[in-house]
Amino acid sequence: MPEARDGPPGLQTLALTVAAMLAFAANSLLCRLALQQEAIDAASFGSIRLMSGALALTLIVRLRTMPPAAGRADWLAAAMLFAYVAFFSFAYLSLSAGTGALILFGAVQLTMLGVGLRSGEMFGPLAWSGFVLAVAGLVYLVSPGVTAPPPLGAALMAIAGIAWGVYSLRGRGVADPLAATARNFLRAAPLALLLSLALASRAHADAAGIALAVASGAVTSGIGYVIWYAALPGLSAMRAATVQLSVPLIAAFGGVLFLSEAISPRLAFASVAILGGIALVLMAKAKRRA
């Protein structure tokens, strides 16, 4: 991908970025809505999400003018994608949309930052302060208390975030990220089907649940990634990373508007700590590169 320009993003890039962030936040809302209404079981939601996403992405890759770049079969990436979708789905049996998105996003970013530290990346005082603040915010969010999220749901979402972080790291430097994503969805779908078969006795789905799962897979995941990849050339790496801080906040406010969920003081304080801490790390890294 060519280096993005440092000037302000154009109107088209801005519109694409907003659309992509809304799509990513909508994944949490769609999953929570489907499971809250018991319109579908978690395993079936994940299976349908991956299958519909695979079909949508494969169709988009085949219809575009540029032929897909050849790529090796990355089964670890596919396994991480499956783990993310599966644990994400089961976590939303008990978590609110905003809390789940915040735990997910925090775990993703902390996983990627932790891998960077382990590989020898140097953190200055500002970056370390942000890293510690983000970890403290995540610990505070899930620590025992009256308004704490259910421990099992929080643990499942944290695992989903770690899996997505590893998946994201596996995709760095891929020549054709859209085609690679389509192939990974295709490889992950059979794993989800196996899980659904193992839990067939608990399976249930009505038309609304299936529709929500298809929307999550084909629209907010599949088309959402297409929109995001279209926006990326117009964003610097710093802006691309920073703008994703909006996803948990969009999900939280979407939960209030569409799911009648409340934003607790604990969630608000944790959001400031986690997202603010990660923003400090990103700022410090950008300054060091400059």
Structural account:
With 290 residues, the protein is mainly α. The protein has helices spanning 11-36, 42-63, 75-91, 97-118, 125-142, 151-170, 177-198, 207-231, 237-243, 246-259, 265-289. The protein has eleven helices and no strands. Helix 1 runs antiparallel to helix 8. The model has no long low-confidence stretch (mean pLDDT 91).
Detail the poorly predicted runs. Answer: none
Query: Structural class from helices and strands?
Result: mainly alpha
| Amount of beta strand | under 5%
| Morphology call | globular
Q: Give a quick account of the main beta sheet: strands, pairing sense, barrel closure.
A: none
Instruction: Tally the helices.
Output: 11
Distance between the termini: 20 Å
The gyration radius over C-alpha positions equals 18 Å
Mean pLDDT: 91
Task: Give the helices and strands, then pairings.
Elements: H1 11-36, H2 42-63, H3 75-91, H4 97-118, H5 125-142, H6 151-170, H7 177-198, H8 207-231, H9 237-243, H10 246-259, H11 265-289
Short structural summary:
The protein is an all-alpha fold. The protein contains eleven helices and no strands. 49% of the residues are buried.
Which structural traits does this protein have?
about 290 residues, mainly alpha, about 75% helix, globular
